[in-house]
Amino acid sequence: MDKAKIYVKVEAEFTTDGTLRPQCIIWEDGRRFEIDKITDCRRAASLKAGGAGLRYTCMISGSPHYLFYEENYKWFVEDK
Amino acid sequence: MERTILHSDCNAFYASVEMLHRPEMKGKPLAVGGDPEARHGIVLTANYPAKRLGVKTGMALWQAKQVCPDIVFVPPRMDLYLRFSRLAHEIYADYTDLQEPFGVDESWLDVTDSTSYKGDGLKIAEEISRRIKFELGITVSIGVSWNKIFAKLGSDYKKPDAITVINKENYKNIVWSLPVSDLLYVGRATEKKLKLWGIHTIGELAQADPSLLQRQLGKMGLILHLFANGDDQTPVSKEDYRAPIKSIGNSTTTPRDLVNDEDVRIIVYVLAESVATRLRENNFKCRVVEISVRDNELSSYSKQRKIELPTDITSEIAEAAMELFHQSYHWNKPIRSIGVRACDLVDALIPVQLNLFISEERRQRLHQMDLAVDQIRKRFGFSSVQRGLMYQDKLLSAVNAKEDHTVHPHGYFENGNRTGVEYLG
Ligand SMILES: [Mg+2]
């Protein structure tokens, strides 16, 4: 079975108004993907990866990617 | 004014949450069941593919396997389901603060006040249903009506993923043809009696002579008559501070017999820590602590006591348990197994009545300390932080606290009979 749900390490910041904003996704092999911009954040389930939480739409080198902050406080991405 | 009440029921709740987390299982039969390793587990919830093949709640796992050889059993992850239950309640809370949970997966919502700006009951039900699907990845069936009883019948009427509106125009068509046993509080015995008088459907019950029902069934006869006619006045309780489950407990069989108070203290603390951690994770506090003790000849008992203030603090729960133990056990025999349970759960956000004789400041500090320990354990594992006590006996302190939950809905009349039956002439 190919794994559709990939837990990742994330660098994030808490802004002064209390918002949690992911800044960088760090892949298992150490590669870093800077998040240029967050275009959307809402509660959503991922039927593909299997899980639910806050879904951030992140612009990474020009294209949008979903990053989920799961209800168990872990971060995951959907495998392509 | 006529009320607008929704009853929302998450379909095959435990199984649906598991299915969401196992996309590879899509379309395949699955059941959440007690401990597949132990031969005598039962099915707690089956998903729809399994239900279609005849798997039912309460079936023994081996029976389920017989009707559905391909079925996959997964052990329950109650804490995960409770988190999803809470997420659903957060969605409901956007429509009303009159929200009353009935079990982990059902809630009544009185949305009368939001109909003026959010649309009618059906519209609100559609929006809730859409959001649950999108945000939680599971489905609900919702009943919409002017009273709680019909709203609940509506959520049962069509599932999964359906909405049924029962209004004054259609209730005779929909509700009255249903068997009386579909009605809340018509159990096997009542059903049998009603049958003797030729009452098989809810409609027949509604049209029966209430004085006859009262003579035969007492006040309950009048209540059922009023249920059947849609005249139940019972309000939806304010999202009060009741937790959707009644208790959280942990128990363990010890690696060696316990022979003195110190042994018991170590085990009680291990169990209390895990009970309190789970209370905090789910934002519950308890008002009653219970211990159960079994000696090495397997005779057992349990004891409960109310505690001063609702708590999720490890040391308070452990000390209450120890006190119960001291009062009740006299060391005639060594002990084989112990359980600690937090009962009468309330929402942690319940406003507390401050007690002059108990230092709130000290309790706050204890609570903060517990939360800090939770954080560290989440990151570095359970054994990364241990109480000093645990170093006294490595064997005992390493026991695994086994989760054991009792999930059962609160009774319909738990806040008293508010059906309005006393106003009947
Ligand atoms: Mg259900």
Strand order of the largest sheet of chain A: 1-8-7-6-5
* Strand portion of chain B: 15-25%
CATH architecture of the domain at 245-409 in chain B: 2-Layer Sandwich
The total of helices of chain A stands at 0
User: What's the main sheet of chain B like?
Assistant: 5 strands, mixed
The pair of chains with the biggest contact is: A-B, 16 and 16 residues
Element order, helices and strands of chain A?
Answer: EEEEEEEE
Helix content of chain B: 25-40%
CA(first)-CA(last) distance of chain B: 22 Å
Name the CATH superfamily assignment of the domain at 245-409 in chain B.
Answer: DNA polymerase, Y-family, little finger domain
Specify the biggest β-sheet of chain A.
5 strands, antiparallel
Q: Tell me the number of structural domains of chain A.
A: 1
Percent of residues in helices of chain A comes to under 10%
Task: Enumerate the distinct ligands.
Answer: magnesium ion
The proportion of strand residues of chain A reads: over 45%
User: What topology, given as strand order, has the largest sheet of chain B?
Assistant: 5-6-1-7-8
